[in-house]
Protein: Major facilitator superfamily (MFS) profile domain-containing protein
Amino acid sequence: MSNVEKLSKAGGRLDQDDSSYKDLDVAQHPSTLLNNESPNNIQVVHENVADDTSAFYNKYKDTVGELTPEEEKRLTKKNFWRLMVQTWWIAFLIHLDKSTLSSASTMGIFDDIDMTKNQYNDLFVVFYAGYLIALWPGSYLSQRIGHKYFITGSLALWALILGVHPAAKTGQQLMALRFLLGMTESQIVPSTAILHQAFFDYKRSPWIQMLWWASGSLANVLLTMIAYKLILDDNAGTLPGGLSSWKWLHFVCVILTFLVFLPLLYWLPNSPVDAKWLTIEEKVHTIAMIRKTHSGVRNSSFSWNQVKECFTDIKTWLFIFHMFFNELPNNTSQQIPLLIVGFGFTPAESALFNIAKPIWGSLLLAAPRDNKIALVVGTQISTFKPSYLLALSWAGLATTGYTKKMITMSTCVVAAAVANMIAPEFWKAKYRPYYTLPWSFMTAFWIISPTMCVIIRLYLQRENKRRQAILEEKGDFEEDAAKINMETLNGVVQINDWDLDLTDRQNKKFIYPL
Structure:
């Protein structure tokens, strides 16, 4: 009897002695099971329990040629360049936004806005408060409407809110705007990361996402060059409209955001199925590369069962705690311009320092306090942090079941948001100018974070040994998978149990990436 035929009429569960799956409960989803069996004894299910690409893949899989190693290499390169050209701009804008406020701190914002240094720190707190509140609703909305429309819609709102910043007169007004800005940005990174995982398997995805995030740091270079020029023009009194340099910096960012928003609204895909640069054969092959890892591509149906499993999975909590300690030192980069000015440099010189590539130099923080150059290099330790995207990517790749994946990644970002809300509290004005105590805490957090990575790896290694034993005994071949008839709006499509939207705890054929 096949796996799917084991769905009982009473409970709708797969038998527990089947080592491939665990607790696949369709009884709690009345619309999922249309009828128990078709006339030819093949299970009939609703399309909401299967991957959204299943109908397309199974319709065309027999019409395309074999995916050769050469074709896989060519297709991966094509997807890399076409998708990266689009999503790179998203990373660019994220970095741009995060650097705008820190750059404005030395461009006259304190002269134009009635705001103290502690209120300036609170701007980061309220930003991540908005971030925190919007994450889970954003995760649901992104899954339901698709990453394309969620990301582009967020960018449009983001630009509008950023454009209102120069009109603020008080710290409270600026806090309200930063809160709204945090809400619009919250789900963009998880949505983009999951979009990458729909095109690239677990071996390629982390490096592609790290490159995506790191390449976005070029925004810091561009922004600080613009800031430097604006500061010089402001000092010379040549800026048009009599506006301060920090206001013009925001206007430049708004224009860039809208210039990115328009082409993405047309070109950005939700999955390989609607990627405009791929032929039908290339779409099938791209989906096939993900299918063989049992990772899943996309499912727009929200599952509360997967939400429950997410928060009862110890692996989820390990990733959450790792993200929290990884992000506690994150606010250091936002304090960089003020720290550099505190070392005795001018605001224009502090902008120039941000153009240089970040350098690991924590030992230099112990340099004599009159050695300004050594201190500046030391502060750069936290400005390049690929660990954030790698951790988020790992959490997503180690989780299957689309709702579970979305909620896991969003909750990791919630942990990051909480950490970023706490982080500015370490940088109180009373610790000026060298912030010795805050730097001590940052060093401790940099030790805890990689330790958590080791713990996660050991946990997943142990689970993989159990799963490898099952695969060695039973094998993992699609031709042996149980056949299923999936009811869609366009008719019945035959799929198999590889197409089901199973979680990593249900699908024992899934091997956790290490």
Q: What stands out?
A: Confidence is low (pLDDT under 50) at residues 1-39, 356-367, 369-384. Residues 4-63+475-496 form one domain.
